[in-house]
Amino acid sequence: MERLRMEKIRAEIQTAADMERLRQIRDRLHKELGQNLLLLHSLDWNRELNQAHDWLIARSVRLAEEALLMEGAGKAPGAYAFVLFGSGGRGEQTLWSDQDNGLIYEDAEDERAAATAEAYFRILADRIGGYLQLLGYPLCVGGVICTNDKWRKPWSHYQSTLHEWLVDPNWEHIRYLLILADMRAVYGERSLASRLMDQMYAYTERHPAILEHMLHNTLHHKISLGVFGQLIRERYGEDAGGVDIKYGAYIPIVNGIRLLAIEKGVRAESTEGRIAGLLEGGFVEEEIAQDWLEALAIAVKLRSLTPFQLEDGHYTTRGKLPADRLTKERTAELKLCLRIGGDLQKYVRKSIHKEIEQG
């Protein structure tokens, strides 16, 4: 029954004729899925939500292509992939995630063809970005978006940039590498993305010392639990008394698992999939893996319970769970999540240092 419901949603999205209809579908799904959060296991609910996000985004790209064709810009001059980064790349978007995306297109045969491709994909990216805003996805404040030429370029330029980041692992370059590590194609020629990931994983396998640089970035966000087991709460502003779920619980868990996956060569996209891959590969004991899954499930649920607002038609949130939503039961859940998250960060540090010593 659940599979049939999702197939119906997929068919409805894929036959939407314009962005107005697509926005109506998204608003309805936002309400329906929000009501289902506490009725399903949070990771099952998360998979359903992100299937819907993928379908909505892919349909927006398709409608952008069709609009350019009707306006006389023609078809895409070559293969390309529309990719998601961050929570979108991991298949872990909330109901109100922003845009974190890019566009990779195949290399042209000559300079003239390259200029044609650059012009077309610039126009396409602008149209896609605008359509996704109409759909309620705000722009990424960090500029990781296809309208930024840093994240919209031919494959060989992406390859050169990746190499630059790898051989000069300063803080900013490592940040970009870890953004790229969550890349996932949701439309177009997926091999353009997977080939880049092949190169990144191959390099880290040959040069394990880069894992130390990744470790510093990975452990940058600390778990929101004090030395005496108390929650570290927001002290000022409208969120005073609440807890930062995104950066104090969810991100530290996600970052830790991602680095372990890179270290062990586990090529999974989601955090849940990466934990499963680490377990199946014999890199972690089942009891520890189950703890990580439990912490992830709690973080996903509590993150999705944070208040949201509509600003200029965009769904947004500050990622903070207010004090009045921190019931006794949720506080106990959160503390369990944070204790596991703290142990995970220690595990990651130890694992990376061991890998470097052996490498």
From TrEMBL:
Highest taxon of the source? Bacteria
Spell out the protein name for this chain.
Nucleotidyltransferase substrate binding domain protein
Using the record's annotation, list all stretches that form the Protein-PII uridylyltransferase N-terminal domain: 49-170
Provide the leader sequence positions: none
Do you know which CDD domains this protein is assigned to?
Answer: NT_GlnE_GlnD_like
Residues forming the DUF294 domain are 209-351
Pfam families reported for this sequence = DUF294, DUF294_C
Entry-linked InterPro entries: DUF294_put_nucleoTrafse_sb-bd, GlnD_Uridyltrans_N
